[in-house]
């Protein structure tokens, strides 16, 4: 029996830990999911069970290596970001895997920014809004201040994907997609670590940088498969689009957050953009990607419940609701769009629909169309922060709102000069992680049919 050449990808989210095997056509030929009960750190704060995760990697690989139909050519990892594993000389963890939502000591944060030029200036240099523990470099600063013995014993601080990679390769590296995403570590104005990293003796605790498209050898004798150094999941999900499309595009990734990613905007962040929740990060080839976001998916969840309760409807109805241009035109004629969204470039956390009186609408369908008008106006304000003056011709929308006909039609109406597509790609993060090292394991050319696109023509000009 001829074996199928495959790549094994560990896709580690906060809730689900998945292992996929992809064949050379990027079809999933095997899938395994694990969930672990969280544990707590020394302060009683919830955190990932690192030992369970470590053992799961070995158990999962043992299971697939036993399968005679597959030939493992490579292994790679993507995980959530802003999470460090502090390892000693032998690669053993010295602390729990602290949660990036762990509260950050206020006084320590004030001390840091006061020492290094103030919040506004520092945030501009590092393209990192002030986010406490979500700025993973701040976790390192905290370890040095609060746990000097651990800091002294620490050989390296590895972001989670690189820690998992080290379990298989036995080597320690840092990856630019993890270092370059709101960590406070990277100075985007000079393309190197920020000065504070040297002043605090942090640089020597960061493993050497290696390209996300490079591979290592496995540390187990007799094995020939290659090991990737791992990627930050947000960067990995962008890779299929970067591989498939050369013309300037933006990707609106929709989930709890609606994040607009523009890989063709390399302009430094302004103080104003930072205040409006923009940030920059580095994609797998080391180039900056400017991103803006607002809490669109979360707001949608809340407002759909409110509409459903008020009009005694099922929330399930809104998942398949058709686009009614006549309702939109009627609502636009009445001009009841909140003033708050009319200022150019004013991207607020929410659309303002929560302040509307639902009694003003004749039924739930009309109310939902008004909500989508408000939400898409907010989406456009958020997206424009990173789209303007960049020559972007196409906008791709993936995630939940890509399946929402009202959202997609309204978005196309707001961008008549651009092509707007709903993009569908199952397991984009895992596929991107495999594509990052494609030439190292796959004998076939880069695939050009991974992403399913649905074009939305402009049906009417937005008011």
What are the salient characteristics of this protein?
463 residues; alpha/beta; Nucleotidyltransferase, domain 5; 7-stranded mixed β-sheet; 16 helices; 22 strands; globular; EC 2.7.1.-; Carbohydrate kinase; D-xylulokinase activity; kinase; FGGY_C_2
CATH architecture of the largest domain: 2-Layer Sandwich
Give the C-alpha Rg: 23 Å
Q: What is the highest CATH level, the class of the largest domain?
A: Alpha Beta
Write the CATH fold name of the largest domain. Nucleotidyltransferase, domain 5
Count the strands?
A: 22
What structural category arises from helix and sheet content?
alpha/beta
Count of alpha/pi helices: 16
On the 0-100 scale, what is the average pLDDT? 93
Pfam families: FGGY_C_2, FGGY_N
EC number: 2.7.1.-
InterPro entries: ATPase_NBD, FGGY_C_2, FGGY_N
Domain Carbohydrate kinase FGGY N-terminal: 7-229
State the gist of this model.
With 463 residues, the chain is α/β, with parallel strands linked by helices. The chain has helices at 50-65, 106-115, 119-126, 136-146, 148-153, 160-169, 176-179, 195-199, 233-244, 271-275, 296-310, 325-334, 364-387, 405-414, 428-435, 438-441, and strands at residues 4-12, 17-22, 28-34, 39-40, 46-47, 70-79, 84-87, 156-159, 174-175, 186-187, 192-193, 209-210, 215-217, 226-228, 231-232, 249-254, 258-262, 279-282, 288-294, 394-399, 419-424, 452-456.
Report on the structure:
- A hairpin with a 5-residue loop joins strand 4 (39-40) and strand 5.
- The protein has 16 helices and 22 strands.
- The protein starts with a strand and ends in a 7-residue tail after the last strand.
- Helices cover 34% and strands 21% of the residues.
- The chain is α/β, with parallel strands linked by helices.
- Helix 9 crosses helix 15, helix 11 runs antiparallel to helix 13 (364-387) and helix 13 crosses helix 14 (405-414).
- The chain folds into two domains: 4-229, ATPase, nucleotide binding domain (Nucleotidyltransferase, domain 5); 233-463, Nucleotidyltransferase, domain 5 (2-Layer Sandwich).
């Amino acid at each position: 029996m001829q074996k199928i050449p495959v790549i094994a990808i560990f896709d580690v989210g906060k809730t689900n830990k998945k292992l996929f095997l992809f064949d050379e056509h990027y079809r999933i030929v095997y899938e395994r999911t694990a969930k672990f009960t969280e544990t707590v750190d020394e302060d009683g704060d919830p955190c990932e069970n690192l030992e369970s995760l470590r053992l799961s990697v070995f158990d999962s690989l043992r299971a697939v290596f036993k399968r005679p139909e597959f030939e493992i050519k490579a292994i790679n990892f993507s995980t959530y970001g802003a999470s460090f594993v502090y390892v000693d000389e032998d690669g053993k963890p010295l602390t729990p895997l602290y949660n990036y939502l762990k509260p950050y000591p206020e006084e320590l944060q004030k001390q840091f920014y006061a020492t290094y030029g103030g919040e506004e200036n520092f945030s501009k240099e590092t393209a990192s809004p002030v986010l406490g523990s979500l700025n993973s470099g701040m976790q390192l600063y905290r370890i040095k201040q609060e746990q000097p013995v651990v800091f002294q014993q620490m050989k390296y601080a590895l972001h989670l994907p690189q820690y998992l990679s080290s379990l298989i390769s036995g080597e320690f590296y840092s990856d630019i997609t993890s270092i370059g995403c709101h960590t406070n570590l990277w100075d985007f104005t000079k393309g190197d670590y920020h000065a504070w990293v040297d002043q605090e003796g942090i640089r020597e605790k960061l493993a050497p940088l290696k390209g996300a498209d490079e591979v290592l050898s496995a540390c187990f004798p007799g094995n020939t498969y290659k090991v990737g150094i791992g990627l930050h999941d947000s960067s990995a999900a962008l890779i299929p689009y970067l591989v498939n499309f050369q013309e300037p595009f933006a990707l609106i990734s929709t989930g709890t957050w609606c994040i607009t990613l523009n890989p063709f905007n390399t302009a430094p962040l302004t103080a104003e953009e930072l205040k409006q929740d923009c940030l920059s990060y580095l994609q797998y080839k080391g180039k900056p990607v400017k991103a803006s976001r607002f809490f669109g998916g979360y707001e949608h969840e809340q407002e759909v419940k409110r509409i459903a309760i008020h009009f005694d409807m099922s929330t399930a109805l809104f998942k398949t609701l058709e686009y009614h241009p006549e309702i939109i035109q009627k609502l636009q004629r009445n001009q009841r769009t909140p003033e708050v969204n009319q200022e150019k470039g004013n991207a607020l956390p929410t659309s303002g629909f929560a302040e509307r009186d639902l009694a003003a609408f004749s039924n739930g369908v009309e109310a939902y169309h008004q909500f989508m008008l408000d939400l898409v106006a907010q989406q456009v304000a958020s997206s424009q922060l990173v789209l303007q003056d960049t020559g972007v011709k196409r906008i791709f929308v993936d995630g939940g709102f890509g399946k929402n006909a009202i959202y997609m039609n309204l978005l196309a109406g707001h961008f008549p000069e651009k092509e707007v597509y709903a993009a569908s790609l199952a397991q984009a993060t895992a596929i991107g992680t495999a594509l990052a090292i494609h030439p190292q394991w796959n004998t076939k050319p880069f695939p050009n049919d991974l992403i399913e696109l649905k074009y939305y023509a402009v049906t009417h000009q937005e008011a």
